[in-house]
Design a protein that fits this description.
heterodimer; A: Rossmann fold; Alpha-Beta Plaits; 2 domains; six-stranded mixed beta sheet; elongated; B: 273 residues; mainly alpha; two-stranded antiparallel ribbon; globular
């Protein structure tokens, strides 16, 4: 409990958007598995009503963070508080829902039977029809679990997470292994949850997914949080624009131009990362009248993500960040 | 994190009503039963093996009037194959499901939910007992209809009650095994324990036909004690103290529950608190 009350002041100091009070938090949490440091001194608040995406490559520590929030793992150091208590308490568990990565679900139960059982654990579950509707399972409620497609199976697990009408949901890689169609369908359903006022922590290694769903993205790599903010803020933390052009100017000259963050030769073209495109373009055209094949794009989340995680990794080259 | 441990004490302000708890236990058991009933590898094999053995060794091979001691073979084999069937239904009903659900992540999904852990184990034990009941009743039915077995109804009821109660030690054993075997090796490990144990306890060949050494060893084997209790009902026991048999079974159950508890704590110890 002690940990739960320390939150409010601290995150205001850190200048986050006032999205609501932190209702769950990892505080200075480290988790080791033997010699492996899965998480190192992570501070991760989840505030009421937000959808946080915990974004990182495989092995970054995302699942470990979720397990700590759910009380399925014990922190090596630091404290975990969820809804003012400890996640192993029943009264906390009746207010959270979880979708975990699971290798095998009992296959001989029907969809509605799985949901009926999990609904029974909660004091005020949603009516079956409503759970089925949110998760898009109405048509297949009588099907045996083992006969479902991958996307349908994930939606059943999603339904089990939400059937108790919890305030806070943890979705660990909900769309992993799904095709584009199934992924978009699940995104729709996750948005419906947020529209109902639920708070959601979602882990993903799909950047597009974090961008599409999240109010706030927390980027994690090698057990450490390397960046956090809105999708827009995350993008702004790296170079804003990317200019691609064919030029006779040599790469060192371009790199020396004001406003240029990084330059990279890509076949016969130059890829130039800049904060603002226009001044650099003007300069380029002034120096090379023959400049051709000009393309200006905004740096996508993908690049932002790569640069953020590579910054954190001393061994990688600075190909993307140019530093 | 020391502080965190102190937080795990349950808030007394929170309590499920008894009727809600009962509803959870009921659904957990109901769906465990449906899951297993539809899983032919479990439901068909646990029921059909003892019946098949009874038909082969009781009805086909032995002439109708063959006897063990003063008891007809068809009568003698109901308690012994009954014990065999109860063991199978209980061990496979608990251990294989637990090992698979532990090993493949499903138990973790359930533990993240507000499911009371005891409901999970109770459902597995209930399953073992229900399938035990089915096996014993079908054996009796076969014996009475095709084996010429004459058993007064009170004795038959007593036999069923003893065998079904005897499912408990093996459910406890199954839970212990389920915590210490992997999802893929569970069935093999159970068979490695189940089949030799059945033979050495005199469930296949009547105990008095076993070598003296095995007869001595049998006294240390739980199925022997259950079989003797059941055989006592049809007047074919070894005339030992029933209390000694019950004590052996209860002691064995407690040991198995202790081992299962160690496994549970080991798993939970990885959790918070």
């Amino acid at each position: 409990m002690i940990a739960a009350f320390q939150e409010t002041e601290e995150h205001q100091e850190q200048g986050f958007r006032p999205a609501g009070e932190a209702i769950a938090r990892l505080q200075s949490v480290s988790k080791n598995f033997g010699a492996v440091h899965a998480l190192r001194n992570v501070d991760l608040p989840i505030r009421a009503g937000e959808l946080v995406a915990l974004l990182g490559p495989n092995g970054a520590g995302k699942t470990t963070a979720v397990k700590l929030f759910l009380g399925l793992a014990k922190p090596t150091a630091g404290t975990v508080s969820v809804l003012g208590g400890n996640p192993v308490q029943s009264e906390v568990r009746t207010r959270i829902g979880a979708m975990l990565q699971v290798a095998k679900v009992p296959e001989t139960l029907r969809v509605r039977e799985h949901i009926d059982l999990f609904s029974s654990y909660y004091p005020k579950p949603l009516p079956l029809a409503e759970t089925l509707a949110i998760a898009g399972l109405g048509e297949i409620k009588n099907r045996i679990f083992g006969e479902l497609s991958g996307g349908q199976k994930q939606r059943v697990l999603f339904a089990l997470a939400l059937c108790g009408d919890p305030d806070l949901l943890f979705l660990d890689e909900p769309t992993v292994g799904l095709d584009v169609e199934a992924r978009r369908l699940l995104w729709e359903q996750i948005r419906k949850l947020v529209a109902r006022g639920k708070t959601v922590l979602l882990t993903t290694h799909y950047l597009q997914e974090a961008d599409a769903l999240a109010d706030r993205i927390v980027v994690i790599n090698q057990g450490t949080i390397v960046a956090e903010g809105t999708p827009a803020e995350i993008k702004a933390q790296t170079t804003g624009r990317k200019i691609r052009c064919v030029s006779r100017l040599d790469i060192e000259t371009v790199r020396a131009l004001p406003g240029v963050v990084a330059v990279r030769q890509d076949r016969d073209a130059l890829e130039i990362r800049v904060a603002q495109a226009e001044p650099v373009l003007r300069e380029l055209l002034a120096r090379d009248a023959g400049l051709s094949d000009v393309e200006v794009t905004s740096a996508g989340l993908e690049e932002a993500f790569l640069s953020l995680t590579q910054n954190n990794d001393n061994n990688s080259t600075a190909a993307v960040t140019g530093r | 994190m020391k502080m965190a441990t102190a937080l795990t004490a349950l808030n007394p302000a929170y309590a499920r009503s008894n009727s809600h708890l009962a509803a959870i236990f009921w659904k957990e058991a109901k769906y465990e039963f449906l899951t297993r009933l539809r899983l032919r590898a479990y439901s068909l094999s646990t029921i059909s093996f003892p019946l098949m053995f009874y038909v082969l060794f009781g009805l086909v091979i032995n002439p109708r009037d063959a006897a063990v001691g003063g008891t007809t073979v068809t009568t003698y084999l109901i308690p012994t194959y009954g014990t065999f069937g109860v063991m199978g239904a209980s061990l496979f009903g608990t251990a294989s499901g637990l090992a698979a659900e532990r090993g493949l992540g499903w138990l973790q999904v359930k533990r993240a939910s507000p499911m009371p852990p005891f409901a999970y184990f109770a459902a597995k034990v209930a399953l073992g007992m229900i399938f035990s009941t089915i096996v014993v009743l079908l054996l009796l039915l076969l014996g009475v209809t095709l084996g010429g077995v004459h058993l007064p109804l009170p004795d038959a009821a007593k036999l069923v009650a003893i065998l079904v109660a005897g499912s408990l030690p093996f459910c406890a054993m199954g839970l212990a095994i389920g915590y210490f075997v992997g999802p893929n090796s569970a069935v093999a490990v159970i068979n490695l324990i189940y089949l030799p144990l059945s033979f050495c306890s005199g469930l296949w060949v009547p105990i008095m036909f076993l070598p003296k050494l095995l007869q001595q060893i049998a006294h240390f084997l739980p199925p022997y004690h259950l079989a003797q209790l059941a055989l006592g009902v049809v007047g074919a026991g070894q005339h030992e103290s029933n209390w000694a048999h019950w004590e052996a079974l209860i002691g064995f159950s407690l040991i198995c529950l202790g081992v299962a508890r160690l496994g549970f704590q080991r798993d939970e110890g990885k959790m918070y608190g």
